[in-house]
Amino acid sequence: MSTRNNQQQVSVSKLAMASLVGTTIEWYDFQLYGMAAAVAFDKLFFPNLSQLTGTLASFAIFSVGFIARPLGGLLFGHFGDRIGRRTTLLAALLLTGISTFLVGALPTYASVGVAAPIVLVVLRVLGGIGLGGEWGGAVLLSVEHAPPNRRGLYGSFPQIGSPAGFLLATAVFAIVTQLPDDQFLSWGWRVPFLLSAVLIVLGLFIRTQIAEPPALARAQERVRASRLPLAEVVRTHPKQVLLSIGAFLVTSGGYYVYATYMVSYGTDQVRLSATTMLIGGIFFSVGGLIGSLVFSAWSDRVGRRPVFIVAATFTALYAFPLFWLVELQSAPIVWLAQGLGGIANGALYGLMGALTAEMFDAHVRYTGASIGQQVSAAAVGGTTPLIVTALVAEAGAYWPAPAWLVALSLISLLCVYMSRETGKDRSVAAAASNPAASPAPAGEPS
After folding, report:
1. By percentage, how much of the chain surpasses pLDDT 90?
2. What is the pTM of this model?
3. Which domains are delineated in the chain?
């Protein structure tokens, strides 16, 4: 018996590593483009435009990746529910990796003219589709394999791939930006993109070592007639789809208030150095790692809803003080303020893996979970910096930025409050261990 339990634990540990490595690589790829767009792509792909217009064009292409993410969630969710999590996840990782590698090999405007930015758009669309298919599958592999009293904790491992990928991309990009400007623009900017090939090979190797969740095989046996998971999840779980989209708003939009808009606000409005604000971003990421692990583990003890409500309430109450602290123009205070915000955002984001997975039945879970995350990301993820910047410019004051964060927090609070508590529900694990078990429809008591 002890040997069997030990083997199961080793399997789950390997699974957690596969989820973490994969999402870290995916977010490394995605964050890398954002950094390159900020410092190099206006010169490389839009040399005939002004610096401001070229930068806006680069960020517009960045946002295209977000718009493509819901398509990836639907596409990979469909096949993930029909043919399996592992195969679909391998395809998502490969698609994102190839598109990122090809960005590093892409000729610039000086070499091929207008074809360069056109191909760049295509590659960002492909990368967004791959990333859209990544999250749902990685979370489900962890949650569906996890022991029943550890689903929150194991569901957080894919979640911490976002701050981990941010840290990795920042470190690699910081190294190449030390090159002289001419060398950086000639070849240095390509190195981080090309290095993604090594990371992708590593991720593929680790993910080939994991098996499909037993719960999925049982569910597929029971519902072979379901040929279109999207149609079924919308028909049978409409409330859960809408609530999951709303629950994700504060994590999707909040992340880009902290990690993106705050850098612009600190440098342009408060006149802090870019280095100070970038270090603040590192503190935010480290706080996110801590918040994801600690609060997800806590949710296994007290439930998902209580932890989410505490973290979202804190986010709403902290929104205005965050900006007041930055206004003090003290680097250590800014770093601590960003770190505290990272803990709150990480607490919310870490919970979402288990919370959304537990909303849906196994045979439509990949599709259902992906819709919530990717639709909210497309709506308020990449668009939040643009929306907040426009609101602040219109108001002539900073208050719309924290007000936006408060609004997202309240909407997500309401959605989670209206959802059923799932942290104490063992039906996900029961279905995996009991072939005869047939979990109650999501949203209904087991």
Report:
1. 33
2. 0.79
3. 1-209 (1.20.1250.20), 226-446 (1.20.1250.20)
